[in-house]
């Protein structure tokens, strides 16, 4: 942050933020954005939907998940615009939602209950995915079969294969990521549901022990179910450290802190691939949290050359990122579906693209949805609150279902944004 180049970028961003904040703030309602951001997760639900389901164009789906291995794996979230349950990003999503509530839950108002519901939808599933000792379910649904078809989740007839890591075929990264999600969520429910909180923490400890004791990459052992979609290219130690850090936070046990200190390393911040808003929302969340800690401890960062970073400047910077996502950008477009007057209409998302069962009750075959994918018409079902991959480096955006990197929403783009919006409130 203290390099000359970055300092100049920050200074420019702050000046722009100051110049435009007042007019733009009046045009956007962060509370409305937060409500929509959380509503999105209901559109990603898998399994038996509850009576409280608000996105009613979604229906029950994947009610036999886990039957191939004699287990109940119904529930959880579809990660993006497909119908696969990838547990690696789902666990990160659940952790980030939990962290958002832990840091900024008091600012969420009426949406606090919806945040808890979103977390619990993930944790209920993860309790199922970790119910057998020394094994963890890493994914459900054959991704290659799924990606061949364009079907509503309610119509799926592609293989719902369960991919499981074991002590013979370990998967430390997915197991440790799930352990982190369970530990973080145990803290969320500590006051409101002590029994559930205790169960989550107990399971987290067990899963982390499994992840650490039987080390190995899940890409090597269940790669056909997760690669190349969510391969782990940086090794599994960062997830183990992440899991230990959350367990230390949840238990205050020194052994977990010692684990973090003994195993953490520096390394390059690398942001590969498309869907760049996943990086924007995550980094904005971290800056929001760090600004809070700086303010609580009366700290600033002196970068030299008369450049001092204060908590207020970090908040201004993250606000600029949020405002860009919500419409303060060269295209005047909100990248959150349903927010503002102009937003993506043709997102890459099966359930949103194909008419709902209410409108088209007949079963749609594997390629029956192709005509809707190829259509130039807007998606018939509004996936309210979904944040898409976002613009290209030159601020252009192609509103096209075929441009997956720009038009596909994911749970792990939205999850950090929940906390950022709550922080601004």
UniProtKB/TrEMBL annotation:
The protein's matches in SUPFAM superfamilies, at most eight in alphabetical order, are given as:
Six-hairpin glycosidases
* Active-site feature positions: 348
Q: Which reaction does it catalyse?
A: Endohydrolysis of (1->4)-beta-D-glucosidic linkages in cellulose, lichenin and cereal beta-D-glucans
Q: Tell me which Pfam families the record gives.
A: Glyco_hydro_9 (PF00759)
Main EC class of this protein?
Answer: hydrolase
- Return the EC number: 3.2.1.4
Q: GO MF annotations for this entry?
A: cellulase activity
Q: Which UniProt keywords apply?
A: Carbohydrate metabolism, Cellulose degradation, Glycosidase, Hydrolase, Polysaccharide degradation, Signal
Q: Where is the signal peptide?
A: 1-21
Any one of the GO BP annotations: cellulose catabolic process
Please give the InterPro entries that the UniProt record associates with this protein. Answer: 6-hairpin_glycosidase_sf, 6hp_glycosidase-like_sf, Glyco_hydro_9, Glyco_hydro_9_His_AS
Instruction: Tell me the ranges covered by the Glycoside hydrolase family domain, including all copies.
Output: 30-262, 266-421
Q: Which family does it belong to?
A: Belongs to the glycosyl hydrolase 9 (cellulase E) family.
PANTHER family, alphabetized = ENDO-1,4-BETA-GLUCANASE
The name this protein carries in UniProt is: Endoglucanase
What organism is listed for this UniProt entry? Malus baccata (Siberian crab apple)
């Amino acid at each position: 942050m203290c390099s000359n180049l970055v300092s100049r970028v920050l200074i420019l961003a702050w000046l722009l933020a100051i110049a435009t904040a007042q007019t733009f703030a009046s045009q956007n309602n962060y509370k409305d954005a937060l409500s929509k951001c959380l509503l999105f997760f209901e559109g990603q639900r898998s399994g038996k939907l509850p009576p409280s389901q608000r996105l009613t164009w979604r229906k029950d789906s994947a009610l036999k998940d886990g039957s191939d291995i004699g287990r109940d794996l119904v529930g959880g979230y579809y990660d993006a615009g497909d119908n696969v349950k990838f547990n690696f990003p789902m666990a990160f999503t659940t952790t980030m939602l939990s962290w958002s509530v832990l840091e900024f839950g008091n600012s969420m108002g009426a949406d606090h209950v919806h945040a808890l519901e979103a977390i619990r939808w993930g944790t209920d599933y993860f309790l199922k995915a970790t119910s057998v000792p020394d094994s963890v379910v890493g994914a459900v649904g054959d991704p290659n079969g799924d990606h061949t078809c364009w079907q509503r989740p309610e119509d799926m007839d592609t293989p719902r294969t369960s991919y499981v890591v074991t002590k013979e075929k370990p998967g430390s990264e997915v197991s440790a990521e799930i352990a982190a999600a369970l530990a973080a969520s145990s803290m969320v429910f500590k006051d409101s549901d002590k029994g559930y909180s205790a169960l989550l923490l107990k399971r987290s400890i067990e899963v982390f022990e499994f992840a650490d004791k039987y080390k190995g990459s899940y890409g090597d052992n269940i790669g056909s179910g997760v690669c190349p979609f969510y391969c782990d290219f940086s090794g599994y130690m960062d997830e183990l450290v992440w899991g230990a850090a959350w367990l230390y936070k949840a238990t205050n046990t020194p052994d977990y802190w010692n684990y973090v200190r003994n195993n953490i390393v520096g390394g390059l911040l690398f942001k590969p691939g498309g869907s760049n808003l996943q990086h924007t929302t995550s980094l904005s969340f971290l800056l929001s949290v760090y600004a809070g800690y700086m303010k609580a401890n009366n700290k600033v960062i002196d970068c030299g050359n008369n450049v001092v970073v204060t908590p207020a400047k970090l908040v201004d910077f993250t606000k600029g990122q949020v405002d860009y996502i919500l419409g303060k950008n060269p295209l005047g477009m909100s990248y959150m579906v349903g927010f503002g007057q102009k937003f993506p209409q043709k997102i890459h998302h099966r359930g949103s693209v194909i008419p709902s069962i209410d409108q088209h009750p007949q079963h749609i075959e594997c390629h029956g949805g192709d005509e809707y994918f190829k259509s130039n018409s807007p998606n018939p079902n509004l996936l309210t609150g979904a944040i898409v991959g976002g613009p290209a480096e030159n601020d252009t955006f192609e509103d096209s279902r075929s441009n997956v990197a720009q038009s596909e929403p994911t749970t792990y783009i939205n999850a950090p944004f929940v906390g950022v919006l709550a922080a601004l409130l």
